[in-house]
Design brief:
The complex is a heterodimer. By secondary structure, chain A is mainly alpha-helical. Chain A contains three helices and no strands. The longest helix of chain A is centred in the last third of the chain and has 29 residues. Classes of the chains: A mainly alpha, B mainly alpha. Chains A and B meet through helix 1, helix 2 and helix 3 of A and helix 1, helix 2, helix 3, helix 4 and helix 5 of B.
Chain lengths: ~100, ~170
């Protein structure tokens, strides 16, 4: 398969993730949509690394995976902390930090 | 054969992604994301990134998703109310998503990268295997490797601080 198929698929997945962030209001699902967007970026990185023919893009993708894992850990920790304080798990009602 | 695998993987990835945003119950969204991650691992294999495909399945679909399932089970899978804070949000968001996709597709296909129409250069069989990635990580990208290990440690400590049981605070 030509490389552009992978890149267009990655653009489609990224747009899907962004759409999910706009539509959904549960923080857990918003984190899942962030995962979708990071994975779309990974797919593009790996496709381009195949296109250039060296493996450095794959190392970048590996670092993106590490960042995604950190983001998940901190995000889920925040969600658990919010739940413990009996606050509603809805990003529209959690607006105390809003300027 | 390759194109059949590609379209199977692409359909799985896209279906999983749509499932994540369409399911009402967060637990089903997590399960849809697992389908998405497995399909992406197939695509990574097609792009001869064997080590990353394995890492995707083991780290993402294995470890991270288990974390998600536990948290969803802990906070409970509440259904979202149909209330829209911004009128027409559910109508506007897909339009904006489609606009983003069209924009990205124009940017990619119009970028006049000469190799876009090809499958990339021929690579030797060791391309993207653990030995090659490990050599790159420990030689050329050693600083990034160490920085990401420190970042992981910080995230673990942060999660314990955030979600750990608090002593009774006097208010």
């Amino acid at each position: 398969m030509a490389i552009e198929w992978y890149v267009v698929l990655s653009a489609l997945l990224f747009a899907t993730g962004a759409m999910g962030i706009l539509i959904r209001r549960s923080p857990v699902v918003i984190l899942l949509c962030l995962e979708l967007m990071l994975n779309a970026g990974n797919l593009a990185l790996i496709a381009f690394s195949r296109m250039v023919g060296n493996q450095e893009g794959q190392v970048f993708a590996l670092v993106v995976m590490v960042i995604a894992a950190c983001e998940v850990v901190v995000g889920l920790g925040l969600i658990v902390a919010i739940f413990r304080r009996r606050l509603p798990l809805d990003v529209d009602e959690l607006r105390e930090l809003r300027g | 054969m390759v194109s059949v695998l590609f379209f199977a993987g692409a359909l799985g990835a896209l279906g999983g992604a749509v499932g994540v945003i369409a399911m009402r119950n967060p637990l089903y969204s997590v399960l849809a994301l697992i389908v998405h991650l497995f399909s992406l691992a197939v695509l990574f294999l097609l792009l001869s990134a064997a080590f990353l495909a394995a890492a995707q399945v083991v780290v993402y679909a294995g470890a991270v998703m288990v974390l998600y399932v536990f948290v969803v089970a802990y906070v409970g899978g509440d259904q979202e109310s149909a209330w829209e804070p911004i009128p027409g949000q559910r109508l506007l968001a897909p339009l904006l998503g489609i606009a983003l996709f069209v924009e990205l597709a124009i940017a990619v296909l119009g970028s006049s990268l000469l190799a876009l129409g090809t499958e990339g250069p021929d690579v030797n069989p060791g391309f993207g295997d653990p030995a090659a990635i490990g050599t790159l990580l420990l030689e050329r990208f050693l600083v990034a490797f160490e920085a990401s290990s420190i970042l992981l440690l910080l995230a673990a400590v942060g999660a314990v601080v955030l979600a750990g049981r608090r002593r009774e605070v006097t208010r």
